[in-house]
């Protein structure tokens, strides 16, 4: 077993920020990216944590991300905000627009934010938690590269097309779920390949369209959607809402733009947020209790709420720090 490297969260932040700025990213963009990478490590989401520094630098060197991007924010309708990410990471665009979007949602009760021309690689729970922290219900989605075959098909068409949802709670952590519509997240597939681990059956097919548990073969073939036709339908919805509707790249277009460089996807993101209090009316406590009764009914059966494990990890990591695989640490330092 490889020895691990132990880092405090502050050390992890310095490692990430220094790596990104030395690679050529602006301090502002490096800070926004570092926030999510360290948050993912803190919460135990290794597939979207500091490992992604390797991909960020690779994407920069391939010329597929603008390292000095300056997002442009435009309110095009009372309940619609558009952000041109300037071919930078979605994270900076989200950070820049979060306050204005929150104000808009509280004015209108519901609003949508479109982030166009953004590079996206990050966990989407991070995006929706930006708004649950502000007391809003939020839904977010984005296409990616065409890596996933439709149900019944044998060729890549969809991205992993993640969907995230967040519901703020009066006491305690928000209810948050974030999942790819593929049967396995692309980051997890890459970590399996990196560590030479076999996949569980049913996650992908090789380039001949045959089932495979070899992550390298699946990367050459296609990933599968979760739940067969149900996951395939949700993946299609993401292509429509966060691709065609916002007039940005679909997953095949993103992969074509990549041109074989292995960079992060380029395209758009759609965020829809709602103000709980405006929807719940004059007796919000009654409405909030209805939600809490659902959560209690889940946990009373011994079932786990989504993200519960993340929030547990978060409490531990804040005081005890994180561990990194030594080989990954050395690869990051070598950048």
In short:
Helices cover about 45% and strands about 20% of the residues. It is α+β, with helices and mostly antiparallel strands and about 325 residues long.
Characterization of this structure:
The structure is a single chain. This protein has 335 residues and is an alpha+beta fold. It has a single domain, classed as Ribosomal Protein S8, Chain: A, domain 1 (2-Layer Sandwich). Helices cover 45% and strands 19% of the residues. The chain has 13 helices and twelve strands. The strands form three sheets. Strands 2-3-4-11-5-7-8 form a seven-stranded mixed β-sheet, with helices on both faces. It has a three-stranded mixed β-sheet with strand order 6-10-9. The protein has a two-stranded antiparallel ribbon with strand order 1-12. α1 (9-23) packs antiparallel against α2. The longest helix is centred in the N-terminal third of the chain and has 19 residues, at 90-108. The protein is globular, with a radius of gyration of 20 Å. 45% of the residues are buried. The mean pLDDT is 95. One of its GO terms (molecular function) is oxidoreductase activity. It holds the Pfam family Ldh_2. This is Ldh family oxidoreductase. InterPro entries: Mal/L-sulf/L-lact_DH-like_ah, Mal/L-sulf/L-lact_DH-like_NADP, Mal/L-sulfo/L-lacto_DH-like_sf, Malate/L-lactate_DH-like. Keywords: Oxidoreductase.
């Amino acid at each position: 077993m490889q020895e691990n490297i132990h880092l405090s969260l502050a050390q992890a932040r310095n490692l990430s920020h220094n790596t990104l700025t030395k690679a050529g990213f602006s301090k502002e963009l490096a800070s926004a990216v570092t926030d999510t990478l360290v948050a993912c490590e803190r919460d135990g989401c290794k597939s979207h944590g500091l490992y992604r520094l390797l991909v960020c630098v690779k994407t920069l060197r391939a010329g597929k991300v603008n390292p000095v991007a300056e997002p442009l924010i435009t309110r095009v309708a009372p309940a619609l905000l558009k952000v041109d990410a300037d071919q930078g990471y979605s994270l900076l665009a989200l950070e820049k627009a979060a306050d204005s979007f929150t104000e808009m949602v509280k004015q209108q009760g519901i609003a949508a934010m479109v982030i166009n021309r953004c590079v996206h690689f990050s966990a989407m729970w991070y995006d929706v938690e930006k708004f649950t922290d502000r007391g809003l219900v939020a839904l977010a989605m984005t296409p990616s590269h065409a890596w996933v075959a439709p149900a019944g098909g044998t060729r890549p068409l969809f991205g992993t097309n993640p969907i995230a949802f967040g519901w703020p709670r009066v006491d305690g952590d928000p209810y948050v779920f974030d999942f790819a519509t593929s049967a396995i997240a692309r980051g997890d597939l890459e970590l399996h390949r990196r560590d030479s681990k076999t996949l569980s059956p049913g996650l992908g097919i090789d380039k001949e369209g045959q089932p495979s548990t070899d992550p390298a073969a699946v990367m050459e073939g296609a990933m599968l959607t979760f739940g067969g036709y149900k996951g395939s339908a949700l993946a299609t919805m993401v292509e429509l809402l966060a691709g065609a509707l916002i007039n940005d790249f679909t997953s095949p277009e993103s992969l074509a733009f990549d041109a074989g460089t292995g960079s992060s996807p380029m395209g758009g993101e759609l965020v829809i947020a709602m103000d709980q209090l405006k929807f719940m009316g004059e007796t919000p406590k009654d409405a909030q209790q209805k939600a809490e009764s659902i959560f209690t009914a889940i946990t009373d059966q011994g079932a786990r709420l989504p993200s519960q494990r993340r929030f547990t990890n978060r409490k531990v990591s804040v005081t005890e720090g994180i561990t990194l695989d030594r080989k990954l640490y050395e690869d990051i330092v070598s950048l």
